[in-house]
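Bench notes, afternoon.
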Amino acid sequence: MKFKGKVWKFKDDVNTDEIIPARYLNTTDPKELGAHCMEDIDPEFSKKISRGDVIVAGRNFGCGSSREHAQISIKGAGISCVIAESFARIFLRNAINMGLPILEIKDINGIKEGDYLEVDLNSGSVLNLTEHKEYKAKSLPRFMQEIIRSGGLLKWIKKRGMARCIR
């Protein structure tokens, strides 16, 4: 999977309540949640981004509650991929389960808001097209890449013919 998009950069310790404020948890509709993604950090975020853009953040992205609304809102907003120095463990697993592409890069300091990135999820390569610099992300195991490519864990299970196992 390859993505190209503009960078929207965030700090360390962005929590799930900042990704999608609790006042919007009365729905699971991706478009509705996406309209409020990152609203408490940047009220205009969902209006400024374009489909395919990329979130780049510091350490511990997605800390906080374990609800999946955060990943749904990011996908619903049209973000193609989230790159961070590290992810909260439950956020990372939920991202894979929801089919949200994520990558970890140890040092994101050279990536600035407004840069354009080309991301290759399969190889873990991130090319900053603005700065002409390549980053190598920690590669996800192949089965996790398959889950993301399938659109999430439930779609991956159905695709593999294992749907009878989850009834």
